[in-house]
Design brief:
The protein is of the alpha+beta class and about 180 residues long. The protein has three helices and eleven strands; from the N terminus they run αββββββααβββββ.
């Protein structure tokens, strides 16, 4: 009986700690209007890097380093991938970014999910939505967003690690204007 009481107390303490962590993560997301960051994105075995501006709800502008100067931009409805030669336009709601760029959606999911502890360094929330698996990672120490993992439109595993994050910076709204087709 004594063991059951101890287990019950430990589980209660653990659940209280998780609830506090989730509330802190949610609070950080709620006060965030935009993020600017550097990124490294790995799809299969190919890595690219660059910088992004993300503005809630559902806007993103990313410039990739490299020879083809790829740009990804979403105005909240459509997603355009622009390279030196072509523009590819997709409905945003057909991509996992539909969920990642929607902070109200993220908050609602984090409220009901239990985080997984990864190596004592990271917290992971795993979301399944409309045949999309989305893993969102936070630094366990400061609870900052550090990246995500999804499957892209072609079912390739895409891992994005972010760094040098700046929150609620003044941003140029014209960045989210979709480029014209070539």
């Amino acid at each position: 009986m004594f063991r059951l009481i101890i287990i019950f107390i430990l589980l209660n303490f653990y659940n209280s700690a998780l609830t506090a962590i989730k509330e802190d993560i949610i609070s950080k997301i709620q006060i965030t209007k935009n993020l600017s960051f550097k990124f490294v994105q790995t799809i299969d075995d190919k890595s690219e890097d660059g910088k992004c501006i993300l503005e809630y709800p559902k806007k993103i502008y990313c410039e990739y380093d490299g020879i083809n100067k790829k740009v990804i931009v979403s105005n909240g409805r459509s997603l355009v991938i622009k390279t030196n030669n072509n523009n590819y336009t997709y409905p945003l709601n057909k991509t996992p970014l539909e969920y990642l760029l929607d902070k109200e959606y993220l908050i609602s999911k984090i409220q009901i999910l239990e985080p997984r502890d990864i190596d004592g360094k990271y917290l992971n929330f795993q979301i399944f939505e409309n045949n999309n698996e989305i893993n969102i990672f936070f630094n366990k120490k400061n609870l900052n967003l550090i990246g995500w993992q999804t499957k892209d439109m072609y079912q390739n595993l895409s891992i994005t690690f972010i760094s040098s994050v700046k929150i609620n910076q003044k941003i140029d709204e014209t960045k989210f204007k979709l480029p014209k087709n070539n």
